[in-house]
Amino acid sequence: MEIQPAQYSQLVGQIGSLLAIGREKAALQVNTILVQTYWEIGKYIVEFEQKGNEKAEYGSKLFENLSKDLTLAYGKGFSRSNLSYMRKMYLSFQKRETLSHKLTWSHYFEILKADSDLEIGFYSKQAEKERWSVRELKRQMKSLLFHRLALSSDKKGVLKLANEGHEVQQPEDLIKDPFVLEFLNIPEQYQYLESELEEKIIGNLQQFLLELGKGFAFIGRQYRISIGGKHFRLDLLFYHRILKCFVLIDLKRGEIDHQDVGQMNLYLNYFKKEEASEGDNEPVGIILGAYKNQILVEYATDSITNKILLAKYQLYLPDKTQLEKALNKLLDD
Questions:
Q1: Residue 43: which of 100, 4, 89 has the closest Cα?
Q2: How far is CA 78 from CA 74, 137, 140, 193, in A?
Q3: 262 pLDDT higher than 80
Q4: CATH classification number, 179-317, choose in 3.30.360.10, 3.40.1350.10, 3.40.50.620, 3.40.50.150
Q5: What's the gap between Cα 87 and its chain centre?
Q6: Dist CA 194 CA 171 (whole Å)
Q7: Whole-structure pTM value
Q8: 104-113, pLDDT tens digit by residue?
Q9: Cis peptide, bond prior to residue 283, ω within 30 of zero
């Protein structure tokens, strides 16, 4: 029987798709079993410790002996560090059912480096929701995402954040204060132009989208707006899949002032009438600047019905000590 090229290509494609799905399912299953096994090992270590045999600490003889004996018997994967985090995994997730089958041991290894149960809870939920790779997770933890989101909330909100992760339900949920743009690699003292800032963001769009958060779809830069014979250019335009609205971003190298607010209000009015489609919610404007005068902002945005959000950005990673102090103060109040 003569083989028909088109039908044969289809057969190869079908087999390839089936194999890809099967391998993915197998990898997920293996990962789930591995994470659960490590959790069980952590449980055994804690139970051994609680019987009073020996205090399980990173530098203790227990971890040293376990690491040596398990490695000798079963091969790699039983360093003192790994064993320490297996123990911490059990202590942090007392119910095995709370472990995510979508996160690998490498994810949990990074998450368990967090200092508090609140952070561990948040990063495990958020990594699962947003399907972060291990690399993306490490970047978000390094940028202190939990602290930045928590400080824009109250005590009740912080606890919800830790238990459920970050949910985008209203425009205000889009804001981090500050946004951290260290991946642009712009020296802190460098006198850059707004056009250079935009160029750098476009060149690092994937990381910028990660910093913005889940739901943003990039539409364009320098988006042309024509009103009454005059032409304007919006720096960055996105559509938010969850909020179902356009998100307009204007970049400011220095301080945000009242004129920036007025201009954004103009853009939003235009988008409501000229760009929004049936089913779209009202557009949201974000003015992203290095500084903002809180009093001036209050007066500039008063009585404006459009949703205009003002946020700071910084070109370096935040100071962990300062953010932890501020968060502890919030939680103690």
A1: 89
A2: 9, 23, 27, 51
A3: yes
A4: 3.40.1350.10
A5: 26
A6: 25
A7: 0.82
A8: 999 999 999 9
A9: no
